[in-house]
Amino acid sequence: xxxxxxxxxxxxxxxxxxxxxxxxxxxxxxxxxxxxxxxxxxxxxxxxxxxxxxxxxxxxxxxxxxxxxxxxxxxxxxxxxxxxxxxxxxxxxxxxxxxxxxxxxxxxxxxxxxxxxxxxxxxxxxxxxxxxxxxxxxxxxxxxxxxxxxxxxxxxxxxxxxxxxxxxxxxxxxxxxxxxxxxxxxxxxxxxxxxxxxxxxxxxxxxxxxxxxxxxxxxxxxxxxxxxxxxxxxxxxxxxxxxxxxxxxxxxxxxxxxxxxxxxxxxxxxxxxxxxxxxxxxxxxxxxxxxxxxxxxxxxxxxxxxxxxxxxxxxxxxxxxxxxxxxxxxxxxxxxxxxxxxxxxxxxxxxxxxxxxxxxxxxxxxxxxxxxxxxxxxxxxxxxxxxxxxxxxxxxxxxxxxxxxxxxxxxxxxxxxxxxxxxxxxxxxxxxxxxxxxxxxxxxxxxxxxxxxxxxxxxxxxxxxxxxxxxxxxxxxxxxxxxxxx
Length: 486
Known about the structure:
By secondary structure, this protein is α+β, with helices and mostly antiparallel strands. It has nine helices and twelve strands. The strands form three sheets. It has a five-stranded antiparallel β-sheet, with helices on both faces.
């Protein structure tokens, strides 16, 4: 379960990181595309301007060849100059339409004199701005230089950059807002789980009836969150069930301690009373001493039996459930006959019928403990039925199990009490005096001993009949701590 939570949380973290990574990658791609688009647009406009200057210079070259200078300026803001470069220097012919700063034009004319092809440059002219310069030959020794302003190109590029920046900002803002909304929507179930966890942390789990009614039930969040929610709720169900089991165990422990204290208190008070009577009889009525001493011994013996049963149950409840057993190959049918003989001797007012077959039923078990189970079941039938009630014991064998049924024709056990007859210190007859029978541990001891042998004990019946069925495996198998079922 913890592994499912870790896997679901890991997937959720991975999904969140992927989403953030994709967002960052999208922004990076947007920036790269914007830069590439700006660069491409600038190059395109510069090529267009270059082609325009080339066409203009075709006309200007003819004008310069005919008149010596260019007499007409083709566009507003353009400059045109004709230089004589025959002697290695660049001399500007007048008249010319040139800016006050002619150094860039003159330098380009000198460079053209030393080259065989047209030269194109981008230069900044003081007082005029950024210009595109192109130089070509009119005839040998004469160079035409044209200058076209790049203000429009710069304005177009600046506007494009501004549009991209605004679009980039809006896209970033939209991505942030949309991402936050999606993250909030996706993480809302996690927030609900955190709220549930805080509610559980503030819940008092020390109470004996502590439960966890809180669950993370908010829908949405995707498959990863759904898996995490399912694992979280499964964990809460497991904790809730564990708390319920703990609360029930605590209640049973309290009830057991109270019942054990009550059962021990009665013989202890009897021992104290008979001890006082014995002391009084020793001084004033010597003939009563033996009677009081016998009763004192009987109460001590009863308390010893009770303590032995409690110790046996404690050892059977421990992890080493097999510790009290000393298994050996035993004839179950013979054990039943021995228990029947002892029952007839102790309860002659209850006719007993035994059906054990003619052959032996060999099992590997602890004969003393199984005999104790049979004695407890037979004694229970005698104690809870009126004199003259018929009791029967039947032994049968299935392919893998040996069955012993102890039945009586008494008043039966009410359906409401059948679920608890194997509980410790539980009595069907609440008004029954402890002087008539045991302490309410007989059936509990029987169920624990049968479970220690890997078998089961069941109760069935109806008004006028009660049947206890003990099932023991023919082949040894691991014991179960609570093998009975009802």
